[in-house]
Design a protein that fits this description.
- This protein is an alpha+beta fold.
- Helix content is about 30%, strand content about 15%.
- Strands 4, 5, 6, 7, 8 and 10 form a 6-stranded mixed β-sheet that branches. A two-stranded antiparallel ribbon has the order 1-2. Strands 3-9 form a two-stranded parallel sheet.
- A hairpin with a 4-residue loop joins strand 4 and strand 5.
- The longest helix is centred in the first third of the chain and has 22 residues.
- The protein is globular.
- About 20% of the residues are buried.
- The N terminus and C terminus are likely disordered.
Length: about 290
């Protein structure tokens, strides 16, 4: 952590250990700085700015990133302590807003969860003050009897993510992804940014969704069916605020373990076992509804 420059911009040069690394942007000079966000090495201000633009990296360290016990230092402990203090202040400030506790807001959330339950979707909302609670724009149209979901798409191979609002639940995942990875129908700018996806065969595209409430060292993903509707894919699953879909390529190596494909546990236990973990955290979520 001490070797990282603040905010992804050139700070003080790194020690001797970093000099063994080459700049990952120009591949010519020795690295002097390391981005706290994506951990990429850079040699100059120009390369730092270029890597931010290329990878859509904001240079801000992810305070919630997992750190193994062997790598955990006093600096990490101090960072976690300050992070918890910030969370406490944010939650306290949000709790003081009268609109958050209005009967209309509570009734709307109750209705949303109830409609989801009838569709066999375990929809859970977070306490006031959480980012996902503030971002969520999911609605239910009583006339059409249809959900319009707030949806986040993440393309890890390109370090890109997009937020969609008002996505009808009867739309197939393939149609949802067309404006992004279809070589014909996608936006030219988006197509260029996600080029690695647009040039790949559609059979290589895999859509995953993280299984909620599992232990940190046991993260697993469900594979979704692109030919089926969003509603069908969400049935029988736990959704915290809104769905987040990870679009990956089977031919490229990634660390996302799909449940049932790692040989350690059967796929049919995905939701029953995951919902039984972290009972205290689940209780907190339910109490806040």
């Amino acid at each position: 952590m001490a070797e990282q420059g603040g905010g992804g911009s050139p700070g003080r040069p790194a020690g001797r250990k970093m000099s063994l690394q080459r700049c990952e942007t120009c591949s010519k000079e020795e690295a002097k700085y390391r981005c706290p966000r994506c951990m990429k090495y850079s040699c100059s201000l120009m390369c730092v700015k270029k890597h931010k633009l290329t990878l859509s990296c904001n240079g801000v360290r992810d305070k919630t990133a997992f750190i193994s016990v062997n790598e955990f230092t006093d600096l990490n402990l101090l960072s976690d302590y300050r992070f918890l203090e910030d969370v406490g202040r944010t939650a306290d400030a949000a709790a003081r807003r009268p609109t958050m506790h209005s009967p209309a807001t509570k009734k709307l959330l109750y209705c949303l969860r109830n409609k989801a339950r009838r569709c066999n979707i375990d929809l859970r909302t977070l306490p006031i003050g959480f980012t996902k609670r503030r971002e969520n724009s999911t609605t239910f149209n009583c006339m059409e009897k249809k959900f319009y979901w707030h949806l986040k798409l993440i393309f890890p191979h390109c370090h890109a993510e997009y937020t969609l609002k008002g996505v009808p639940d009867d739309k197939t995942l393939a149609d949802i992804l067309k404006p992004y990875i279809d070589p014909v129908e996608s936006d030219p700018v988006v197509c260029q940014r996600l080029k690695i996806y647009t040039v790949a065969p559609q059979s290589d595209v895999q859509i995953l969704m993280k299984i909620e409430n599992r232990k940190q060292n046991s993260v697993r993903y469900n594979e979704l069916d692109a030919s089926r509707s969003l509603l069908d894919n969400l049935k029988g699953k736990v959704i915290i605020e809104y769905p987040t879909l990870f679009v990956v390529l089977k031919t490229l190596k990634n660390d996302m373990v799909v449940l049932g494909q790692d040989g350690s546990e059967p796929a049919e236990n995905s939701d029953s076992e995951s919902s039984s973990l972290s009972s205290v955290e689940e209780g907190e979520i339910r109490d806040s509804l």
